[in-house]
Please model this.
Amino acid sequence: MTKITAELTKPLLIDGAMSTALEQLGADTNNSLWTASVLANQPALVKKVHQEYGTVPCQVYTLNNKN
Model:
């Protein structure tokens, strides 16, 4: 078994609190659809969260995008 295959047999937890991180960066949360609003109107905050998560060693990166 290759190392990659062996790694894939282990449970993998993917988590990254996007909403909490956006709130901490000052995202405008005064809207019932605020997370979508932030993607549309404050994309630099979303980028900053991704950049900050990117500094943490991990095996998987996931992205929050509007595409």
Summary: Helices lie at 3-8, 18-24, 34-41, 43-53.
